[in-house]
Amino acid sequence: MAAMVEIRDARKVYDGGFEALKGVTLDIEEGEILALLGPNGAGKTTLISCICGIAVPSSGEIRVGGHDVVREYRAARALVGLVPQEVNLEPFETVWNTVRFTRGVFGRPRDDAHLEDILRRLSLWDKRSSKINALSGGMKRRVLIAKALSHDPQVLFLDEPTAGVDVELRRDMWQIVAGLKEAGVTIILTTHYIEEAEAIADRVGVINGGRLLLVEEKAALMTRMGRKELRIDLHDRLDTVPPELAEFDLALEDGGRTLVYSYDTAAERTGISRLVAAMAEAGIVLRDLRTSQNSLEDIFVGLVHDGEDAA
């Protein structure tokens, strides 16, 4: 079965010669949540714009639901809902008319009950008669989400949807995303809040400099590239790491009261047993042990740094 979104060697060159996308190839399956991570200027928004028909790729092919986004623009665009970064709403229109108009633009039949449900889930129902210019920034962001959902899209793009918004909206947003996923909607998320991607994504893609550096299942990525850190609190302070422990490449922190040992979670042996035994032989008494694993943010920073070095 074909993927819901198919991207083949997509390139985008702007006037002046700037190449924002450099041959991106990616399949996004129906009903999955893909988190697309990358620093500012990495190409995330350009890629989304090309998929949604806002920008035209310079070369390559992009299909949504089997429809080419250039040759079959209307059919492809009808399947897509977009929550953009920028708030661009008619200031003197009401919330209700704004959302209802968007549904009509996509040729969907009138369904006031459906729109009411969306507004209620986004805590906008009480504001349905309010004009956009009377709303707070967070409420305007909710209206953008309601517009994107108004025509029942099969693919939903969230371009930094919770940047600068309140905690309540963020919580509501992810509840809605979870419900849409259960209904089979494909969701592509760009975010600077990496903990959000870590919490809800099925797969993670990292883009930088217009190139897709990696796309992998989140759990597999963290298993393959994550490292664990063992922090050993000592009974007595050390001035330096003893020569007997040199092979373990330990770091000394907290004024000499903590030894830090990093190890690969995928390795056949972690070396922890040997380390503890070597400490005992060296007469070092430990007081406590704690472990922590690299977060998705740690992995992301490392990938982007490696990509910049390769370029």
The tally of domains stands at 2
**Mind telling me the C-alpha Rg?**
25 Å
Distance between the termini: 35 Å
Strands of the widest sheet, in order across it, are 6-7-8-3-9-10
Estimate percent helicity: 25-40%
* Low confidence ranges: none
What is the SS-derived class? alpha/beta
Question: What distinguishing features does this structure have?
Answer:
Alpha-Beta Plaits, 311 residues, ATP hydrolysis activity, Rossmann fold, six-stranded mixed sheet, 2 domains, AAA+_ATPase, transport, four-stranded antiparallel sheet, P-loop_NTPase
Can you give me a brief rundown of this structure?
This protein is of the alpha/beta class and 311 residues long. The protein has helices spanning 44-52, 73-78, 95-105, 112-121, 137-149, 167-182, 194-200, 218-225, 272-281, 296-310; strands at 5-13, 19-28, 33-37, 59-64, 67-68, 80-83, 155-159, 186-190, 203-208, 211-217, 227-234, 251-253, 258-264, 286-293. This is Daunorubicin/doxorubicin resistance ATP-binding protein DrrA.
Walk me through the topology.
Layout: E1 5-13, E2 19-28, E3 33-37, H1 44-52, E4 59-64, E5 67-68, H2 73-78, E6 80-83, H3 95-105, H4 112-121, H5 137-149, E7 155-159, H6 167-182, E8 186-190, H7 194-200, E9 203-208, E10 211-217, H8 218-225, E11 227-234, E12 251-253, E13 258-264, H9 272-281, E14 286-293, H10 296-310
Parallel strand pairs: 3-8, 3-9, 6-7, 7-8
Antiparallel strand pairs: 1-2, 1-4, 4-5, 9-10, 11-13, 11-14, 12-13
Helix pairs in contact: 3-5
Structural write-up:
There is one protein chain. By secondary structure, the protein is an alpha/beta fold. It folds into 2 domains: 5-222, P-loop containing nucleotide triphosphate hydrolases (Rossmann fold); 228-293, Alpha-Beta Plaits (2-Layer Sandwich), CATH 3.30.70. Helices cover 34% and strands 27% of the residues. It is built from 10 helices and 14 strands. It has helices at 44-52, 73-78, 95-105, 112-121, 137-149, 167-182, 194-200, 218-225, 272-281, 296-310, and strands at 5-13, 19-28, 33-37, 59-64, 67-68, 80-83, 155-159, 186-190, 203-208, 211-217, 227-234, 251-253, 258-264, 286-293. It has a 6-stranded mixed β-sheet with strand order 6-7-8-3-9-10, with helices on both faces. A 4-stranded antiparallel β-sheet has the order 2-1-4-5. Strands 12-13-11-14 form a 4-stranded antiparallel β-sheet. α6 (167-182) links the parallel β7 (155-159) and β8. It is elongated, with a radius of gyration of 25 Å. The mean pLDDT is 87.
